[in-house]
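Limitations
The structure tokens in this dataset are predictions for the assembled complex, not deposited experimental models. Users should treat interface geometry with appropriate caution, especially where small molecules or nucleic acid strands are included. An illustrative entry is reproduced here so readers can see what is and is not provided.
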Amino acid sequence: GDSVTQMEGPVTLSEEAFLTINCTYTATGYPSLFWYVQYPGEGLQLLLKATKADDKGSNKGFEATYRKETTSFHLEKGSVQVSDSAVYFCALIEGGAQKLVFGQGTRLTINP
Amino acid sequence: GAVVSQHPSWVICKSGTSVKIECRSLDFQATTMFWYRQFPKQSLMLMATSNEGSKATYEQGVEKDKFLINHASLTLSTLTVTSAHPEDSSFYICSASGTYNEQFFGPGTRLTVL
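Predicted assembly:
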């Protein structure tokens, strides 16, 4: 079945550091890929998405590129802020399917 | 973007009582709604998928009689935790999707069973 694997957390960085959170996936078809962010005590918010190979999703300084050859969708940000502290989930959905498949989540803490 | 609300945002109840959680799509028609459960510091576990006007489809291992899901209209789904026990304490999150299949998530409901 489809699956998503994220780098294990927690990840702790200093403000203005470069961020990478790795995400790889296994899917039988051509999924759409997502990054969601969950702030403490809240539900999930869509951060960015990509629907086909080589697409780059971007939002709030975060970027991720859909790499079919390496089945990856790594999340990056050039300079993190304290307000980026949250849990980040990588997810996929197969074309035509309804069910999102989530990675295990990566907790990110940014220290001032 | 589309807005999904949940009510209540938190609830505390006694063991053996039932609790109903509402999920509403505020500005779009949700043909499909999803219910997730999230344990502390863990990922989301899909409990069930419901399409408006039909019975919910439960994931393996989720008790249908324990977690009753109703999706009676295109803007409202409810999850009722029946005869709740402390092990049912968790964070419950709903999501809704409409025409374009993208899921929009509610803010979650924290259930504590004493």
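Some entries come with short summary sentences. For this one: Chain A has no helices and twelve strands.
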